[in-house]
Amino acid sequence: MARARSFASGLAESSPARFAILIFTGLILVLTAVLALPISAADRSATPLADALFTAVSAICVTGLVTVDMATHWSTFGNVAILIGLQVGGIGVLTLASILGLVVSRRLGLRQKLIAASDTNPMRTHAGPVAESQAVRLGEIGGLLTTVAVSVLAIELVLTILIVPHLLILGWEPWPAIWKGFYFAASAFTNTGFVPTVEGMAPFAEDVWMLTVIGLGVFVGSLGFPVIFALARKVRFGARFSVHVKLTLVATLGLLVVGALFIATLEWNHQPTLGSQEPWFRPITATFLSMMTRSGGFSTVDVSQMNGSTLLGMDMLMFVGGGSASTAGGIKVTTLAVLFLAAFAEARGDQSMNVFERRIPNDVLRLAVSVVLWGATIVATAAIAILHITKEPLDVVLFDTISAFATCGLSTDLPGRSPDSVKYILSATMWAGRVGTVTLAAALAASQRRQLFKRPEERPIVG
């Protein structure tokens, strides 16, 4: 035991990225074993390994893709295990480890601060020490952990309080209303998208209250804990927002509006989706669906019936995802913002990227490009393999593959009708998407290379 503890401590200190992946993967395997037990299924039969693994990965990666009926397949024991899994995945494994360490030792040492910091800013694990002019400084990690613990409990409690009375008004019995109301709240804030009702979201397809509350939960969860922490500091102390916070808020709201207009325009008269709704309600549905592409995964329409053009546009929105260090997936909105800032700077002939009266260093651009290329490579590799196995149309395969990578959960039901090999591929895609391309790359690197010389410069032709 002492040797294992020493190994884990050394790994956490030398490579937080590898430590994160080890713990993250271990939790997935534990939840897989639990869900495969007969007690986890409603009919008390053992769940096939492929379905148990897929559900475990989907829960801890807060994705929301499913291969079984979540409302009928799992027992109460199984549902509780899944809820614990999505809470752990939503908070972040390293953040949770630091919180537990703080609770046990009643103090937060430097090592725990560094471990938690790698969850709030992946650049710390990728390039070592970084400038402290960011959303959360190392000295504020303790405050961030408190914010994480309090905000998770408080926000999910508020969402539950908003949902339960509404379900009672709709005629639900008290216990199902409380249990499933909390399930909806946790699933929304963690951006998982699991639905505990047999009919799915169909009973709430034109329920403005439920759509608003769930959409709000997804929106707050997709901002990221550093942004929530900054908002809390703003309210309490009037602190200024960092560039990260401003970029996250502007990009998130901008993509929400653009996505809503895009979906409404392409699906307005399409009868299987928005076309069958009253004209005044179609913008609400379009906005809700746009919010779900941030990584929410809830849907009030049959995604498989959408136009191919709409699916392609939603692919782009899902690939971007939500805010850094959030419960959302994707390459993150700040990554997209940095790439656009670089393009604008190049078009204007500026030597540096400037935004909100601040200069963004070039190493951030290099990291953004790496994230996009790694993400695109993972999606392309998985999509090609699934296309070869299933022979399904490209737009369907690409949609579900990007949804898995971006831990979104919107689906054309491809996982449910595919062989086990596809379930394993999508599970690996969800794992890579949640672990994060930066953390994955840092973990795969054997060590930080130090080069004490510079080679002669030569410029290849680009473009």
Question: Can you tell me about this structure?
Answer:
InterPro entries: Cat_transpt. This protein is mainly alpha-helical and 463 residues long. The protein contains 19 helices and two strands. It has helices at 2-14, 16-36, 49-60, 76-91, 93-105, 110-120, 123-127, 141-169, 174-189, 208-223, 225-237, 243-267, 282-296, 308-320, 333-348, 362-390, 394-405, 420-435, 437-444, and strands at residues 353-355, 358-360. α8 runs antiparallel to α9, α14 runs parallel beside α17 (394-405) and α17 crosses α18. The protein starts with a helix and ends in a 19-residue tail after the last helix.
Q: Which parts are unreliable, with pLDDT below 50 for 5 consecutive residues or more?
A: 97-120, 123-142
How do the helices and strands follow one another from N- to C-terminus?
A: HHHHHHHHHHHHHHHEEHHHH
What is the C-alpha radius of gyration, as a whole number of Å? 22 Å
The largest beta-sheet arranges its strands as 1-2
Structural class: mainly alpha
Total helical segments: 19
Ends distance: 57 Å
Strand content: under 5%
Quantity of strands, as a count = 2
Mean pLDDT: 82
Shape: globular
